[in-house]
Amino acid sequence: xxxxxxxxxxxxxxxxxxxxAAGIAVALRGARRELDERTAPMAGLTAAFVFAVQMMNFPxxxxxxxxxxxxxxxxVLVGPWTAVLCMTVVLLVQAVVFADGGLTALGxxxxxMALVSxxxxxxxxxxxxxxxxxxxxxxxxxAGVGAFLSVPAAALVFVGLFxxxxxxxxxxxxxxxxMGGVHLLIGLGEAAITAAVLSAVLxxxxxxxxxxxxxxxxxxxxxxPPAAAPVAVRxxx
Length: 237
What we know:
Elements: H1 10-34, H2 39-54, E1 58-61, E2 64-66, H3 71-78, H4 80-98, H5 106-129, H6 136-165, H7 172-204
Antiparallel strand pairs: 1-2
Helix pairs in contact: 1-4, 1-5, 2-4, 3-4, 3-5, 3-6, 4-5, 5-6, 6-7
């Protein structure tokens, strides 16, 4: 999903950079309502996790591989506004330190993986969470579907950008078919990883998952201690 330098013309790259900057500015304001003493450390851990997992690719067939984007997962864990900031930091470090995506394409990659992925993934999660049972299984299904759909959504936005400002001599139909097909498969891996990570966190610390605050909490009443047996008092002879 990382768009390399020179794949889009300068005008399109500049436009996506402006969109990314505006999105980050809005996210900075929104994150103030999400960050607290629990969310702030979790945001750092989530960003580090997404950074590490993005470096590992999984095969999707025919010599093609994919990796976790992490937008939906991050949004469910720490909230959508904080997720945009986490994803932006990950993409910035990857571009500067590892030349993954390139600096001139940073705005494009932030738009696709920090804005589109988070918006679609978290939007689908919230919509499904509103109608599914308020249980852990319901949350995992909602997050998995959101993660799955976020990947081809970002891919289709890239196809639109390529149609406007792509510089490679490739037909737009070929790009759409290739990107759509491959990223549907990658979306399956995204959904599986998202559900697995959320299941593990919900099993041990559900209070750390911001998106799980709507879940029904099962209240277990402690058993009442048995009443003490009456003590017979004998009259002294």
